[in-house]
Every structure is written in C-alpha cells, then in structure tokens.
C-alpha cells in the first residue's frame, strides 16, 4: 500500500537559493529509488524560504529505507546550518 508524505522545510532568511540547490540534489537521488512513486518539490511564492515536498512511496518499509539513504544523510549534513527548525513531516492518506 502506498504511503503519502508531505514535508515542510524552511531556510533561514537569505539562504533560500542555497537550500533550493541542496533540495534539488535530494530530489534527484530520491527519484532514482525504485520505491519512489512521486517526489515533487514546491517553493511557496509568498515565502520563498519555505519549501514543500509531496511524496508517494510504494510502502512504509521502503520509505524507512529512503530515510536512511546516503542522499538523505547528505541533505541533513549539507542543510543543517541553514534550516530554520527541523523539517515538519506529515504522513497522509488520499481522500477520494
């Protein structure tokens, strides 16, 4: 069963472009995973420091593997100094 996830990530003021570059690298690595069914990055127009991911994973087990992947670890290291708080993660379900 698919797992749907929304992640909200915010950069510190003045670091949106640097964070965007790091996030685009994260997108490339994540989309290369077979279990990744959707991995879309959005930037909020009214607040360019705010980024939102919409993700779909094939299963919880595969999402768990993604969360310990090298590109997730690299993101955590590369972005640590420019994040405004911890990412906010929401596991959701599709409402038909």
TrEMBL record:
Statement: the UniProt record of this protein carries the keyword Oxidoreductase: yes
Entry keyword NADP: no
Segments forming domain ABM: 3-91
GO molecular function: monooxygenase activity
Membrane-crossing segments per the record: none
Keywords: Monooxygenase, Oxidoreductase
Pfam families documented for this protein: ABM
Protein name, as recorded: Quinol monooxygenase YgiN
Record organism: Pedobacter cryoconitis
């Amino acid at each position: 069963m698919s797992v749907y996830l929304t992640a909200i990530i915010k950069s510190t003021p003045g670091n949106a472009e640097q964070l965007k570059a790091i996030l685009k690298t994260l997108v490339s690595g994540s989309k290369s995973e077979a279990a990744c069914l959707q991995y879309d990055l959005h930037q909020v127009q009214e607040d360019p420091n705010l980024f939102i991911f919409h993700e779909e994973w094939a299963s919880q087990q595969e999402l768990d593997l993604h969360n310990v992947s090298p590109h997730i670890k690299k993101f955590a290291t590369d972005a640590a100094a420019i994040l405004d708080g911890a990412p906010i993660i929401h596991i959701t379900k599709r409402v038909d």
